[in-house]
Specification:
heterodimer; A: alpha+beta; Alpha-Beta Plaits; four-stranded antiparallel beta sheet; B: alpha/beta; six-stranded mixed beta sheet; 10 strands; 33% helix; 27% strand
């Protein structure tokens, strides 16, 4: 006797899909719709996150050094700055007041007023990048607390704004994903429940013959899994089309200066994997839950 | 082997279906369980197949104590039983062969085992030339033979037949009962639930009669008063 007949389960799962064609079609359509909505918000979140990551990379603040420090003391201070949590150690750069002046003048070539500005007007400084934008303020405070740091210049408000936007988009995406996953589960459960209802006599016979719950349940789980995977594949291609269309619309409207979409070629594997996993899980779980009632024989 | 010890069954709606039934059926016996409608026969069958549990008392079937049987053990207990229903309960869209394969696959039988066992069982019930027929192409008597074949195909220790002749004319009923007697003579314990007095009287078997949930007679052969 064999304990697990995979071929039989797959065959039964497939035949059940086609014997309840209309319901299967409806289930696939709903999974497609839910996955596209979930996918669109997820992609928005990913793009916002990607944009913020770029900004994070550029995000820096300046810590001005007390003029009374000797060169050795500056070097010691630099080491202390590098050891502070959330400071990217490789990014800490010492900028002399002369360099700072030259950099400043690059933006004001046409303005003769600054040409004869003495170097002493500016201070030596460290340019520091943070790793996590969310800890920007704390990091700045920690650096400023070091003896020898006279002052700083940091765009805290901008950083906090970016973080707030990212958190809001991520939270919204998760809430929507949760709601839509629940809706999908409900729909696939109903589809399976109808399929199981029409086969309740068969199920009763199976149980009376000594079928285990697993033996009865597996074909339905396979059916749900297949419906979920079909929905995922269809949703993936539609999502691709939608994404490309949005990208074109952004380009045509000239909005790319503000917001550039990641290339789909860079993320398609991740999208397909998430769709297949989500669709498959929704299908299999929905069917698994739906069949429970019919096993009470 | 079946043992019912002081079995009481009260349904959720307050109906007392069984009131202190004691019954022992040994391996290899042929027993008629008789009684009028509503006497509690079907409740006993449901208890024996673990569809329901007793409110009080002990139920032992083929070595399984159904009072504390675990859910995962129920399929294994049921594999020791073959169950025949009054309404046949065949799958209409499957052929005779398909119905028997379905029952065998349920317990994990391989294709090789099916090819070996199914022709033997069909021959036993006299349907060796009907393997490719669909149930709706067959008479009631033939359909019940398919149901008997399905009950037999997994080689159970005991067959429980719940009103197996209820949908058949007297001649077909006699044929079916004779077939069950033949299967019993090959060693399979047989519990036949019926309310057909004439049929019971034609076979000299043990008769257990119940009425209003109580056992009113347990004796060998012949006439009973419901």
């Amino acid at each position: 006797m064999r304990r697990f007949n995979l071929g039989y389960f797959i065959k039964e799962g497939f035949s059940s899909i086609f014997s309840h064609g209309l319901m299967s079609f409806a289930a696939v359509c709903m999974i497609v719709a839910c996955l596209i909505i979930m996918g669109s918000f997820s992609l928005l979140a990913v793009n916002v996150d990607g944009m913020l990551s770029q900004l994070e990379e550029e995000n820096e603040f300046l810590a001005y050094i007390d003029e009374s420090l000797t060169d050795d003391q500056v070097r010691t201070l630099m080491e202390k700055v590098k050891q502070i949590d959330n400071v990217d150690p490789g990014s800490v750069t010492f900028i002399t007041r002369e360099q700072a002046k030259q950099d400043y003048l690059k933006g004001h070539e046409a303005d003769g007023l600054y040409v004869n500005m003495p170097d002493e007007v500016l201070r030596d400084r460290f340019s520091i990048h943070v790793i996590d934008l969310e800890k920007f303020t704390e990091t700045v405070e920690a650096v400023c607390a070091l003896p020898g740091v006279a002052n700083h210049r940091a765009e805290n408000k901008v950083a906090e704004g970016f973080v707030a936007v990212r958190n809001a988009v991520t939270a919204l995406a998760w809430v929507l994903i949760g709601i839509l996953a629940a809706v999908s589960l409900f729909i696939i459960s109903n589809t399976t429940r109808l399929a199981a209802f029409s086969r309740r006599e068969e199920i009763a016979i199976m149980k009376m013959c000594g079928a285990t719950d697993g033996f009865v349940r597996w074909p339905f789980i396979v059916e749900g899994l297949l419906l979920g995977l079909m929905g995922a594949v269809v949703a993936f291609f539609l999502q691709w089309g939608v994404y490309a269309a949005v990208g074109r619309a952004l380009t045509d409207s000239g909005a790319t200066a503000l917001f550039t979409l990641m290339e789909f070629a860079l993320i398609w594997r991740r999208v397909l994997t998430v769709f297949l996993l989500s669709g498959g899980a929704i299908g299999a779980l929905g069917s698994g839950f739906a069949i429970r009632k019919f096993l009470q024989v | 082997m079946i043992r019912l010890i002081d079995i009481h069954k009260e349904y959720d709606n307050g109906t007392k279906a069984l009131k202190g039934i004691n019954l022992r059926i040994e391996d290899g016996e042929f027993v008629f369980l008789v009684g009028p409608s509503g006497s509690g026969k079907s409740t006993i069958v449901k208890l024996l197949t673990a569809e329901i549990t007793a409110s009080r008392g002990r139920v032992i079937v083929n070595g399984y104590n159904l009072n504390n049987i675990r859910r995962w053990q129920i399929p294994h207990m049921r594999r020791t039983l073959g169950i025949i229903f009054q309404d046949f309960r065949l799958i209409e869209k499957k052929t005779v062969q398909g119905n028997l394969e379905f029952a065998m696959r349920t317990v994990g039988a391989s294709g090789r085992e099916m090819r070996k066992r199914i022709p033997y069982v069909l021959d036993l019930v006299g349907l060796e030339d009907k393997a490719d027929a669909y149930p709706n192409e067959m008479s009631g008597g033939e359909q019940q033979r398919v149901a008997i074949a399905r009950a037999l195909v997994n080689n159970p220790r005991m067959i429980i037949a719940d009103e197996p002749t209820g949908n058949l004319d007297p001649r077909r009923s006699l044929e079916i009962m004779t077939l069950l007697e033949r299967i019993n003579s090959m060693g399979t314990t047989m519990l036949v639930v019926t309310h057909e007095r004439d049929l019971v009287n034609r076979f000299s078997k043990r008769v257990v009669a119940i009425k209003d949930g109580e056992l009113i007679r347990d004796g060998q052969g012949g006439y009973y008063r419901a």
